[in-house]
Amino acid sequence: SLSDKLQGIFEKLRGKGRLNEKNIQEALKAIKMSLLEADVNYKVVKDFMKATKEKALGQDVLKSLTPAQQLIKIVYDELARIMGESASELILNVNPPSVVMLVGLQGSGKTTHAAKLAKMLKKLGKKPLLVAGDIYRPAAVKQIQVLGEQIGVDVFSMGTKLSVPDIVKGAMAFAKDNEIDVVLVDTAGRLHIDDTLMVELEDVKKVCTPDEIMLVVDAMTGQEAVTVAKEFDDRLDITGLILTKLDGDARGGAALSIKYVTGKPIKFIGVGEKLNAIEVFHPDRIAQRILG
Amino acid sequence: VGKSHKIDDEFLEELEEILITTDVGVKGMTNILEHFQEIAEMEEIQDHRELLDLLKEIFHVILDDKPVPIKLNDGELTVIMLVGVNGTGKTTTIGKLAKKYRDQGKSVMLAAGDTFRAAAIEQLTVWANRVGCDIIKYESGGDAAAVVFDAVTAAKARKKDILLIDTAGRLHTKVNLMEELKKVRRVIKKVIPDAPHETLLALDATTGQNAVNQAAVFHKEIDLTGLILTKLDGTAKGGIVVAIKEELKLPVKMIGVGEKVQDLHVFDPSEFIEALLS
Ligand SMILES: Nc1nc2c(ncn2[C@@H]2O[C@H](COP(=O)(O)OP(=O)(O)OP(=O)(O)O)[C@@H](O)[C@H]2O)c(=O)[nH]1
Ligand SMILES: Nc1nc2c(ncn2[C@@H]2O[C@H](COP(=O)(O)OP(=O)(O)OP(=O)(O)O)[C@@H](O)[C@H]2O)c(=O)[nH]1
Ligand SMILES: [Mg+2]
Ligand SMILES: [Mg+2]
To answer: Is-contact A95 A57, C-beta < 8 A?
Structure first.
């Protein structure tokens, strides 16, 4: 682990007399490499290490009796500070129906998490409605219908021939007529650089004025996480993120990068394929995982 | 690569930035920087243009110079299995491969080996209809190994040229799911001992260093023959395949560059390296 590595570095230095700025470099390099190994964005790591180094020198880690522990604490505190102080709640409208839109790259887990949120909301006594907003992917409508059936939640679909904004308009009317509490709009996966499809999302946003626009991001995403998140955020003003597939062994550095660059909170994490595999996000837990 | 004209700290930092931001990863970067410094010192390379050429050359050495195609058996059934973690593009890639081989005049059959995920069988069926080929499928929730056994038997009996086997996405960390995949492989071998002739890992180009874990575990458990790098039409460079080739010797055979049936190309190392360094 990183803390073992740092212990080793400082023990080796102990014999060499006073610690100085030069030999803290090895410790700082170990921290930098650990963050890069966790897929944290290169530029974010640079900024982070600059702040860490200043703190380390400022707090005179070098004079400490336990420099490794103190340095780990500085890094961990800084990570936790960036990730946010506590878990964020789902924004629900005082005047129903509340609307949650799920967006993101292809295959990130949007459809699955629309259903997971629906199941969660149903358990909390709310009446959710799933909207089949993916008219492109083969059997996408069928997929969300099967999931809706599994959890006993209605799925609104108008097939694949109408435009997505028209379908969502229909869904909003249906929701109002049927006393729906929360409308969950699943959308097709798309590239952040596909202007036509990004405009489609902007049009859907206009039609349903969402309370939440959740960017669904795969925890194994590498360096490009920042570019993707920034583009979705710039165009849609996302309100939060769902980080998926955290039941794997990806370190999840994308979480730190995205939070650092967009400031938007991660609200939920996906921890499995089953529809109950969703948890509220806890910033301190991911800090530990990213540090390694 | 910037303005420095020798291997100084500034140049090394630029190199580090290229290698990390293209997802070559820390381990891949460390190996490449070692190669780099050895060779550059030996050849006394001082000009920065030469340094960039040297980097290209190192990539070429790692990735090999020419494309490594999917091996087809002449006159006999070729069994190709697609595996990988969730959402990487396996099912879509099978649709594209089916089209490619149909266009070459080959007879193709699909096996709906994902019996778990909602509408997985329906999704593959749409592709079978689009491309015009047979598909062996049973009810969702059934035993994947049973479907695959029947599909290999049917493909052999009906004298098909190519059988494409779709499997459910699974995280490499799930032991029971990896065991299921091993079972699928065993039943294939019951029908044709040499099959599957190709076991391809679908890897999403946006994936970071976890891709190495994925490749390592899938390779250890079921013997991969290559990778298909998908979603390269995005902005991610997919540099992790360099680290995977270096470490596991697994080549990228095809790349996915979109969601349409024609968006599948043979992997060309030179084009890939150009794009990495652009
Ligand atoms: N292990 C695991 N698998 C997940 C998780 N979330 C989703 N999946 C799986 O990931 C794959 C993709 O999920 P989808 O919900 O279809 O993803 P999507 O974003 O809707 O995909 P597109 O609509 O094609 O863009 C499926 O196999 C899901 O079962 C998770 O948290 N853990
Ligand atoms: N842009 C782009 N999207 C792709 C590519 N390949 C697949 N996709 C999309 O990625 C999403 C997931 O594709 P699937 O074929 O369902 O992936 P899978 O690996 O079979 O998913 P699971 O079976 O759930 O594990 C779909 O929306 C596809 O259209 C590609 O090369 N480029
Ligand atoms: Mg979907
Ligand atoms: Mg699939």
So the answer is: no
Q: What pLDDT is stored for residue A9 in this prediction?
A: 85
Q: What are phi and psi of B115, to 5 degrees?
A: -100, 10
In short, whether B262's Cβ falls inside 6 Å of ligand 2 is no
Range of lowest pLDDT (A53-57, B89-93, B117-121, B202-206): A53-57
Q: What is the pLDDT of residues B22-40, one digit of tens each?
A: 999 999 999 998 888 888 7
Q: How many helices (H) and strands (E) does chain A have?
A: 11, 8
The span from the CA of B127 to the CA of B181, in Å, is 23
Which range has the worst mean pLDDT, A105-114, B9-18, B91-100, B206-215?
Answer: B9-18
Question: B47-88, pLDDT tens digit by residue?
Answer: 777 778 889 999 999 998 888 999 999 889 999 999 999 999
Transcribe A83-146 into DSSP letters.
H-SSPPPP---SSSPEEEEEE-STTSSHHHHHHHHHHHHHHTT--EEEEEE--SSTTHHHHHHH
Enumerate long-range contacts of A226-230, CB under 8 Å, 24 or more apart.
A226/A41, A226/A43, A226/A44, A226/A257, A226/A258, A226/A261, A227/A192, A227/B235, A228/A105, A228/A192, A228/B206, A228/B234, A228/B235, A229/A257, A229/A258, A229/A261, A229/A262, A229/A264, A230/A261, A230/A262
Residues of B with CB under 8 A from a CB of A: 17, 20-23, 25-27, 85-89, 95, 116-119, 122-123, 125-127, 171-174, 204, 206-211, 213, 231, 233-236, 240, 259
Question: B206 and A105 in contact by Cβ < 8 A?
Answer: yes
Cα–Cα distances (Å) from A286 to A29, A98, A266, B233, B252, in that order, read: 21, 29, 11, 30, 32
Q: What is the pLDDT of residue B4?
A: 47
| Spatial contact of B240 and B207, defined as CB atoms under 8 Å apart | yes
Q: Is the CB of B265 under 6 A from ligand 2?
A: no
Looking at every residue in chain A, the average pLDDT score rounds to 94
**Residue numbers in A near B235 (CB within 8 A):** 191-193, 224, 227-228
Lowest-pLDDT range, A125-139, B28-42, B112-126? B28-42
Atom of ligand 1 nearest to the CA of A248: 1
